[in-house]
Amino acid sequence: MFIQIHADNQVESDNERDGRLEDQIRQRLARFEGRITDVEVHVSDLNGSKGGNADLRCTIEARVNGIPPVAAIDEGTNVDRAVIGAAKKVVRALDHQLGKLRDGR
């Protein structure tokens, strides 16, 4: 599973943080490891320099063999919370989509 992390120019990005986020995403999506080809993560700051609560947004799109891509969005007070929240939503969406495939057969 290939994971690509993008951040807008309002969100500080460094290799250490990206590695930590990638590990968190891999943990949550581990049981789908054989089905997911790649994961694209976008992190953005909704309010820019104005600040505010829950102003960081994470969008995660997982591309899975055999079904259309699955995407989820979550917001949080920091990058980690937004990414973890979006990853949890992707897991639920994958459970739902793959369950429909399994039930349909």
* Helix-strand pattern: EHEEEH
- What is the helix fraction of residues, given as a range? 25-40%
By DSSP (H or I, 4+ residues per run), the number of helices equals 2
CATH topology: Double Stranded RNA Binding Domain
Please give the order of strands in the largest beta sheet: 1-2-3-4
Rounded radius of gyration (Å) = 14 Å
Strand content: 25-35%
CATH A-level architecture? 2-Layer Sandwich
Uncertain runs are none
Any descriptors?
4-stranded mixed β-sheet, alpha+beta, 2 helices, Double Stranded RNA Binding Domain, elongated, 105 residues
Q: Could you explain how this protein is built, in words?
A:
By secondary structure, the protein is of the alpha+beta class. The chain has a single domain, classed as Ribosome hibernation promotion factor-like (Double Stranded RNA Binding Domain, 2-Layer Sandwich), CATH 3.30.160. The protein has two helices and four strands; from the N terminus they run E-H-E-E-E-H. The chain has a four-stranded mixed sheet with strand order 1-2-3-4, with helices on one face.
Summarize the structure.
This protein is an alpha+beta fold. The protein has helices spanning 15-29, 79-104; strands at residues 2-7, 36-45, 56-64, 70-76.
Task: Compile the SSE list and pairings.
Elements (H helix, E strand, L loop, with lengths): L1 E6 L7 H15 L6 E10 L10 E9 L5 E7 L2 H26 L1
Parallel strand pairs: 1-2
Antiparallel strand pairs: 2-3, 3-4
Helix pairs in contact: 1-2
